[in-house]
Amino acid sequence: MTRLPELPVEEMTPEQRRIHDAISHGPRGSIGGPFLAWLRNPKFADAAQQVGEYCRFHTVLGRDLAEIAILVTAVHYRAEFEWWIHRQLAEQAGVPEPVIEAILEKREPDFTDDRARMVWQVARALNERHRLSDAEFEEAQKVLGENGLLDVVGLCGYYALVSLTLNTYEVPVPDGSSVFG
Known about the structure:
This protein is mostly helical. It has 2 domains: 15-57, no CATH class; 63-161, AhpD-like (Up-down Bundle). It is built from 8 helices and no strands. The mean pLDDT is 94.
């Protein structure tokens, strides 16, 4: 991190260490990104990482659709690290390369799946306008279901928090690349 030095494990308080261990021994497998900043406030870190674990690993949408919402949010906030890591995760989840590129270029992807298109539409509307029209809400409920729509809202909100943290603390992309300049 350029604005916040890493917190060595041996210098962590017992509460910081507990949360560090919960994250690094959980489904993420390591500490990185926003967690190094969040660990400064263990209660915040714990709450945020629990929401993040749900968003990343337990959403009713499935990995591919979740990654679409995350990428839309990363582009909106121009969060380099977030884009870098989740582009890879989106590829691994089976999101087609042309869809990923269209999201990066802020143009409508050529979706073959109605649920993927709806996740993109909802994520874009929430990030750009911060709300859905009545018609958008009704269509999203119909296509994604009540829990699916709520998960898109949660993904956009959580990854907005992640993106703002990454941008505030200028977390660099490990390979030094820059997408947003």
